[in-house]
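[User] Once you have settled down, look closely at the record that follows, and write a paragraph about the fold.
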Amino acid sequence: MTSPWLTWIQQLQGIAQTGLTYKNHPFDAARYEQLHQIAVAMLAAQAEADPATIADLLRQDVGHATPKVEVRGAVFRGGKILLVQESSDGLWALPGGWADIGDSPSQAIEREIFEESGYQAKATQLLAVYDRANPLHGHPPAPFHSYKLFFRCEITGGQPTPSYETTAMNFFGPDERPPLSPGRTSPGQLQRCFDCLNNPTLLPHFD
């Protein structure tokens, strides 16, 4: 699926979802529901997927349509950065995942680091806020729009421990990069983390 199509479909679905949330008249609900069905049909056609499956996926997100939040942690040791090997694709990424309701951003990344690597860590610095859909980052298309928050974190305890989401974890230097999981961590984002290590005065990067 080309990037413009996915963006248009996400925007169309967002209008429908937000309209259904704030509807003031039965006719409004019918129109926004029709808009939602159009977005489902378009996404199913572009993805060559079953419309019912797409509808179930989009139904997981309710209320005012807004980007989801993903957190990623840059944990360094001896000039090398911690990466975890994902069970889902066998590729490597900065530890992280979706932020949970009730977590502050720092709590979310500290929890994700522990769950995916076994290390206890403390978030110390916001490094970047990126739009996952920005083509400059090279992520593959996704059904939901999301922002990625990157934090510098310091190890405070724990030990390397695989989880159901990860099969291995290791520290890599800037010239030792393993194959990266493209939906989770891009080469440019990893390089930005090393740039912040080498120059701690860098301001948070965004977009």
